[in-house]
Structures are given as C-alpha cells and as structure tokens.
Amino acid sequence: MRFNIYPLQFEPILKERIWGGTKLKSVLNKPITSKVTGESWEISTVEGDVSVVSNGILAGKSLNELIDSNPEDILGTDVYKRFGKQFPLLFKYLDAREDLSIQVHPNDELAKKRHNSFGKTEMWYVMQADKEARIIVGFKENSNANEYLENLKNKTLLSILDDVKVKTGDVFFLETGTVHAIGAGLVIAEIQQTSDITYRLYDFDRVDSHGNSRELHVDLALEAINYNKIETKKSYNTTLNQSNAVLDCPYFKTNFLPLDGKVEVNKNGKTFTVYMCVDGNFEIESNHTKFQYKKGDTVLIPAALNSFILNGKASILEIYIS
C-alpha cells in the first residue's frame, strides 16, 4: 500500500564540535543548547545517526523505515536501481567558530576496502561569511607525498596549501582526495555522499577541555590524498525562478533556484529531490496543502511526489541524483 506522499522534514541531529559555535541558532534558528555546536545533520542514514520525520502523519518514523517499506516512492526508480535501499546522500549545515582540522576523505574504492563505506565527495555553499573568512582547499602547486610529509613534520603544511577568501554564495566542489578545511567565521551548507569517513592531517595542535588532542590519521591519508593542484570553486547563473546548474557530478546534481513568486515543478519519479533553503522563505503547495519553509530548513521531496508548486522569495539549493 502506497504511503501518504508529502514533503518530508526531519529532526535536526545536532553535533558538538571543538570548533563549533552558536550561529546554527542565531543564523539558522536550530534548537541548539551548546555553545560549541558545529553541525546540524539535516538528512542522514549514517549508522547511529538516522533521521526521524518531524512533520505530518509520518512524524516519528525513521528515513530508513520509509525507504524499507516504500523504496521506489521515496528514492525513485533510478536511485533504487543504483543504490538499493540505501539513501546515498548526507545533508548538513556547519558553523565554524574556529578553523576545522585539515583533513581529507577517501574515494569509493579506498573507503569500501578499508571501512565498507561510500567515499566522501562533497560540496559547500557559503551561507554566511565573516570579514576575511577563508577556506583551505588543495595544494598551491602540484606536490607529492614527500613534500607533504616534510611540511607536516615541520608544522609548515599551511605554506603549501591553497588559502581562499570566501563570501556568501560561493560554492566549492571537493572531490575525494582534496585536502581541505573550513575556516573560522563561516556557516556552510554541505551536500555529500553518505559517509562519515574523515582522515585528519593536522589540528593546529589543539586540545580539548581535558587537555587531550584529537587523533590524527597521517598514515591512512597518504594513499587518499590528491597531491595535484585542482580547481574547486564553481561559478553559476542566478536567473530568477529557474533551476541554474551549479554542479553535476557522478554522485549528485545541484542547482541554484532564486525564487521570487510561483514556480510549477514536475518530476519524473526517477529520483528524490532535496531543497535546502539558504535564504528567505517559501512554501510548497501539494495536493491542496501548503508547507512553509524558512532559511535553514531542509526538505525531502519523495520521488513519487511528481507535481507541486513553489511560492515565495528565497534562495534554494535543489539537489537530486541524475
């Protein structure tokens, strides 16, 4: 029996981090209770952190439960064929009060072999940036393992890594193997493969409240790193009321939709769609019912919901699998 199909929201899964702050509340209105909240996992099926529906008659059901009983209706025919009953993406908001550790993620092959996991290709959209905020992405010039290890040993790693100033609306695509770190003063919307595999290379010699430093994964990272200089920043159009292509990679496609008024949306049932509201307010009208969203909200449109209307004034990231 087909379930009642409507746009799904989930309880945020809040994560304290040594580098976190309070902007997830002040900027995105998340219900944080800690002054070091670094992440809000919006849609997740990572083991131990599975999202639970927060709205409508399915409230209290986990995303895994819904997929298990209605895989094609939730995921879409093409996504189900490719991934089975696995939800292949993870959606987050991050608040960096301090610099994150310098890290890297393994590709699918390495992650499968070592962790029985997907790799971790990801995309960042900058929602808010303090003055002079920056990120670290890749190497300034082509490098190699020996140069990397020498600089790591001498604590001069930053001297060979690319340091990029950022502003609201900037987008960066981080393929697996890209050495990276989100800098202090940034709120980021992050789209990634369903994976929580991170190799930490350098943590600025920080310690926690008990005087303990976090584990580094220098040896594991050696084989995972892409030592070549790469271009990570993505440019895109901002035509009103239109899905403007931002990124099309093997794992997901992202569009930027600047909404000002009404837009009719028609889908083909092949893939789910996720909307992340990065600014403003909008509503989805479906089956004569209206659902309201604001900045910081994330909504999953089940693949079986083929036709609906977007209405409002907002900046929206539109993500699906192509």
Please give the structural blueprint.
Layout: E1 13-21, H1 23-26, E2 37-43, E3 45-46, E4 49-50, H2 63-69, H3 71-75, H4 77-83, E5 89-96, E6 102-104, H5 108-115, E7 122-129, E8 134-139, H6 145-153, E9 161-165, E10 171-174, E11 180-182, E12 186-193, E13 199-202, H7 218-222, E14 233-234, E15 244-248, E16 253-266, E17 273-286, E18 289-294, E19 298-301, E20 307-320
Antiparallel strand pairs: 1-2, 2-5, 3-4, 5-12, 6-13, 7-10, 7-12, 8-9, 8-11, 10-14, 15-16, 16-20, 17-18, 17-19, 17-20
Percent of residues in beta strands? Answer: 35-45%
What can be said about the biggest beta sheet?
A: 7 strands, antiparallel
Catalogue the unreliable spans. none
Shape: globular
State the end-to-end distance: 27 Å
Residues in helices, as a percent range? 10-25%
Q: Structural class, please?
A: mainly beta
Q: Which strand order do you get reading across the main beta sheet?
A: 1-2-5-12-7-10-14
Q: What is the succession of H and E elements?
A: EHEEEHHHEEHEEHEEEEEHEEEEEEE
Rg for CA atoms = 20 Å
Q: How many DSSP H or I helices?
A: 7
Tell me how many strands there are. Answer: 20
Q: Provide mean pLDDT, rounded.
A: 96
